[in-house]
Amino acid sequence: MNAKTPDTPIVIIGAGPAGMAAALALHTVGHTPILLERYREARPAGNILNLWPPPIKALQEMGVDTDDLGAPCHTTFRGVKGNIRADVQIPDDVVKAYGGGFIGLLRPELYRRMLAAMPEGVLRPDVEVTAIEDLGPTVRVSLRDGSSIDAAAVVGADGIDSMVRRLLWGPSERREHKLHIIGGYTFADVPGVERNEVVLRHDRTVQGTYSSIRDNGRDGIQWWVLEAWNPKAEPPADLKSHALSLARRFPGPLAALVDSTDQKHFQRWPIRDRKPLKRWSKGRITLAGDAAHATSPYAAYGAGMSIGDGYTLAQELTGVDLTDAAAVVAALGRYDDRRIAHTTAQVQQAYVLGKVFHHAPAPLRPVRDFILDKTPMLQKQVGEKSPAEIVAQLDEMGAGLVRA
Ligand SMILES: Cc1cc2nc3c(=O)[nH]c(=O)nc-3n(C[C@H](O)[C@H](O)[C@H](O)COP(=O)(O)OP(=O)(O)OC[C@H]3O[C@@H](n4cnc5c(N)ncnc54)[C@H](O)[C@@H]3O)c2cc1C
């Protein structure tokens, strides 16, 4: 029996960051991925993005060009008056090795770079998966046009409303954070901007942030404002004037950045996730990305973790004989073991931060802000512990991706 069974494909459902990463990584280690996307093209559902070092390492191992992909940024959490509450510490050697500790970019550029690395024929756009069935030796993937593909394994990278997650683990409620975020970007030269910084401020109820980006060799700024919002309520009628009214609560250039943003570069997202799962994989089927761990943008890490999933999955499937059901199940089990604790901690931390900053009862807000301003609590959690956990992933990721 051929050890790698190159003709038996691994089918990946969904060409977002998770699916593209899984396809690239599985191809790199010698498997035959097929990446199915229901839309006519793999297209980003948003504009602004930041990436930590682990996804940069993963992208490099998958053959993606990360040179000048984004603007290197140092991050501080600040109070409304500008006082530093937490300085996000990423070791200098990591900053040096990965082109910055945390980079700001635009999502379409990430897609363009990942697609440029995709081998011919792997991505099949305009193909919607309607059902999957584990037949034992293979998984049958049924398509909207009535045809089907028999796969050696299936990766559900089909986003927050994942059909694959539902089929494997049953229905689950979306967890509404009762928050929304409005964001955008501009290349205008606005005075007073701190370059190569993520300037993240909170007042009593609102977050207002801006950060450097690089896009196709151009320097710009992305910004966002975040506040409590009833998910059943209508969105603000005029996004720009609403975002401006929030940005004006903060000193510095935030309001001018919002004002200089083209209407077509404004976006709004209600924030929601799903409670993390205890297992992702069952038989020959597994999950990746938001399907496995939808995450609030408070983590700025949902896409980053999605890319890490594909990398780890490919490492665990390296050299595995896909005709050997027990070997495939064991590999997927190891993938679960390596990814679930880390991603669950990040999802939960992002959920809690949203609650602390935007849903604290009014009488408690001065107490909360006193603690944030005067004690090292936020520094310990988001300045030191959380980035240390993310950076520790670089070691956990091991030697890289090697063709079997
Ligand atoms: C405002 C905002 C800011 C964010 N900022 C950051 C950040 O700074 N850093 C970061 O790392 N993350 C960030 N995130 C999170 C990040 O965007 C997501 O975690 C990431 O896009 C998830 O990728 P994915 O591939 O799992 O899912 P998706 O991007 O949702 O892709 C799923 C794909 O599956 C396809 N699909 C679904 N069903 C089927 C089917 N049946 N058949 C075929 N195709 C199907 C869909 O069309 C889609 O293309 C942010 C999110 C938001 C909302």
Describe the protein in words.
The chain has 12 helices and 17 strands. The chain has helices at residues 17-28, 53-61, 92-97, 107-117, 163-169, 239-247, 254-259, 290-293, 302-317, 325-358, 365-374, 377-396, and strands spanning 10-13, 33-36, 48-51, 71-78, 84-87, 102-106, 123-124, 129-134, 139-143, 148-151, 153-156, 175-186, 197-202, 207-215, 218-228, 267-273, 285-287. By secondary structure, the chain is α/β, with parallel strands linked by helices. The chain has a single domain (10-175, 273-396), classed as FAD/NAD(P)-binding domain (3-Layer(bba) Sandwich). A hairpin with a 5-residue loop joins strand 4 (71-78) and strand 5 (84-87). The structure holds flavin-adenine dinucleotide. Flavin-adenine dinucleotide (FAD) is lined by residues 13-19, 36-39, 45-46, 49-51, 128-129, 157-159, 163, 181, 183, 269, 289-291, 295, 297, 300-304, 306.
